[in-house]
């Protein structure tokens, strides 16, 4: 977008925000995977579909120069790609939520730490390869090579074990519930019928015995038909049950208030990361390979932040953890202001070290905010709609981040910041600093006694 398409920072920020919109409607994918199984399976078929949606756009972008040169077509293809990535993320989140619920609260932090640490290892390799590729390969070759990753994801679906037994048990529960309701009426009806035939003799009893056989067969046939109808109506019943469960869950202040705080904490901060990328490459003349190395440091610090949280912070009060996280993020913004103002030069600190330390600290501190959100979300998911409810929680986080990105794009445009004009960038970072401290005033929405481990 910067080098090939020559887009301004605000335009790039806006298009990236639009491309990430599929991450804000994750409950739709969760409802699909939870309530509408494909061939009696809720996870693997949707992993396959999402992998294909992630794979095709990269191939098209890599093979078609006109499409990747058009901002509209590029944004459309990126939307499709993010649709596949978000859908796969929902399915994986649901599987992790199931594991968290079955393992118990004492292991919830360990499971989330394992998940994030695995992602961090992948991020380290991706940042190293990405920095090298940007410096040594044409952009179309990078896209084609990158399409191998969704292909590996597609192949990995073979190793995901999923049995239709859970689906069958759910259907049987529905049938048994209906059968229990019908059995009461049948019992009363049977009692009346038996009393009316008490005076019959032996011959009549023999004839009645044959009729009872036919009636028994008819009841079995009706039960079989009811079973088939329950299977065919299961998507509707599951959708209705999922919607009811979501409404019931969000009526609870223990859920609504924390989620409202997490939404405010992201939406109030104008995200101008794209502008900082332009500044680092155009003004500071940092190479792509170095920025890839900076991301490696960031991923290592993410792993370190995950370990520190799981080892030392998860038993602390959640209010204190979140306040510490936002004060730390405010300090990172101050470092960016120093970088843009070039005040660090008089102390002999190079630009590269400011960028490295800023990236490292930001990713570590963000984990102190993200880990309790993930653990809390995973433990609040009731059985049967793990994907839907966890996806809704994550969508609140993603939507608020998207709104923060739109706010950052609007701020960039209002301050007339362009790829050659960064005079007001320090002012924009000052506004971001105020937005970072603002959510601390809303910490009353977080219950006072809740810790970072469990509600």
From TrEMBL:
It is found in: Membrane. It comes from the Eukaryota. Gene3D superfamilies: MFS general substrate transporter like domains. This is Major facilitator superfamily (MFS) profile domain-containing protein. Keywords: Membrane, Transmembrane, Transmembrane helix, Transport. It comes from Brachypodium distachyon (Purple false brome). The gene is LOC100840910. One of its GO terms (cellular component) is membrane. PANTHER family: FOLATE-BIOPTERIN TRANSPORTER 1, CHLOROPLASTIC, FOLATE-BIOPTERIN TRANSPORTER 4-RELATED. InterPro entries: BT1 (IPR039309), FBT (IPR004324), MFS_trans_sf (IPR036259). The keyword Iron does not apply. The keyword Aminoacyl-tRNA synthetase does not apply. The chain crosses the membrane at residues 12-32, 44-61, 73-92, 113-135, 141-160, 260-279, 291-309, 321-343, 388-413, 425-446. Belongs to the major facilitator superfamily. Folate-biopterin transporter (TC 2.A.71) family. It is a multi-pass membrane protein. Its main location: membrane.
């Amino acid at each position: 977008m910067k080098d090939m398409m020559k887009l301004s920072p605000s335009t790039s920020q806006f298009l990236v925000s639009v491309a990430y919109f599929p991450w804000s409607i994750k409950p739709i994918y969760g409802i699909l995977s939870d309530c509408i199984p494909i061939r009696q399976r809720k996870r693997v078929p949707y992993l396959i579909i999402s992998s294909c949606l992630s794979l095709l756009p990269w191939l098209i972008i890599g093979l078609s120069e006109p499409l990747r040169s058009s901002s509209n077509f590029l944004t459309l293809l990126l939307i499709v790609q993010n649709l596949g990535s978000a859908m796969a993320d929902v399915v994986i989140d649901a599987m992790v939520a199931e594991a968290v619920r079955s393992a118990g609260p004492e292991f919830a932090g360990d499971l989330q730490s394992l998940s994030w640490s695995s992602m961090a290892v992948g991020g380290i390799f991706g940042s190293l390869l990405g920095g090298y590729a940007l410096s040594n390969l044409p952009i179309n070759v990078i896209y084609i090579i990158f399409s191998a990753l969704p292909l590996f994801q597609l192949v990995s679906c073979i190793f995901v074990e999923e049995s239709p037994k859970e689906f069958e048990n759910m259907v049987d529960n529905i049938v048994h519930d209906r059968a229990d309701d019908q059995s009461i009426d049948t019992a009363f009806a049977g009692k009346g019928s038996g009393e009316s035939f008490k005076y019959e003799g032996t011959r009549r009893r023999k004839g009645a015995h044959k009729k009872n056989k036919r009636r028994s067969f008819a009841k079995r046939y009706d039960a079989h038909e009811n079973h088939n109808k329950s299977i065919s109506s299961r998507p509707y019943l599951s959708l209705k049950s999922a919607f009811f469960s979501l409404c019931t869950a969000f009526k609870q202040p223990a859920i609504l208030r924390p989620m409202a705080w997490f939404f405010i904490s992201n939406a109030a901060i104008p995200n101008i990361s794209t502008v900082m990328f332009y500044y680092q490459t155009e003004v500071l003349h940092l190479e792509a390979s170095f920025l890839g190395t900076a991301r490696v440091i960031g991923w290592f610090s993410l792993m370190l932040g995950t370990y520190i949280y799981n080892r030392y912070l998860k038993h602390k009060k959640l209010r204190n953890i979140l306040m510490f996280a936002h004060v730390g993020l405010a300090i990172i913004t101050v470092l960016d202001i120093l970088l843009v103002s070039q005040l660090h030069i008089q102390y002999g600190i190079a630009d590269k070290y400011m960028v490295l330390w800023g990236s490292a600290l930001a990713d570590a501190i963000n984990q102190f905010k993200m880990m309790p959100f993930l653990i809390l979300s995973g433990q609040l998911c009731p059985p049967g709609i793990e994907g839907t409810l966890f996806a809704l929680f994550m969508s609140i986080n993603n939507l608020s981040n998207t709104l923060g990105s739109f706010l950052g794009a609007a701020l960039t445009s209002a301050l007339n910041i362009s790829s050659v004009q960064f005079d007001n960038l320090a002012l924009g970072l000052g506004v971001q600093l105020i937005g970072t401290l603002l959510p601390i005033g809303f910490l009353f929405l977080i219950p006072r006694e809740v810790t970072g481990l469990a509600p």
